[in-house]
Amino acid sequence: MADINFVSFLTLAVISLFAALVVHYAISYRFLEGFDGFVGKWILGWIAAWLGSPVLGHWFAGGEIGSVYIIPALIAGFVGAFLPAAIFKARAGAMHRTPVEVHGTQQAA
To answer: What is the pLDDT, as a whole number, of residue 65?
Structure first.
């Protein structure tokens, strides 16, 4: 899968574009605001979709376009577009912990 043809590249671009559009605009899950955050999701979605078939397997022989299996690529594309935002949000939440009072003493939450 390292040497892909134009049809495979275009298929992965469309799959990752769909995943990035849904994650960035439809559900507004963002780690960067604006167009640069969208493009970042698109690029990471493309890489994940490219790895989708080798990692998840070759599902449904009829669901293949240019050596790209659509279902694994779509699942991986969504993971690739979603995961960076989830990681950055979790990291930001962990760094901004507020102290809470437990039995008369303050401790970090």
So the answer is: 82
Cα distance from N-terminal residue to C-terminal residue, the chain = 46
| Segments forming the whole domain that contains residue 46 | 6-108
Residue 42 is assigned to a structural domain of this protein: yes
Question: Model-level pTM greater than 0.85?
Answer: no
Tally the domains of the chain: 1
Mean pLDDT for 92-97 is 74
Specify if 66 maps to a domain: yes
CA distance 10 to 34: 24
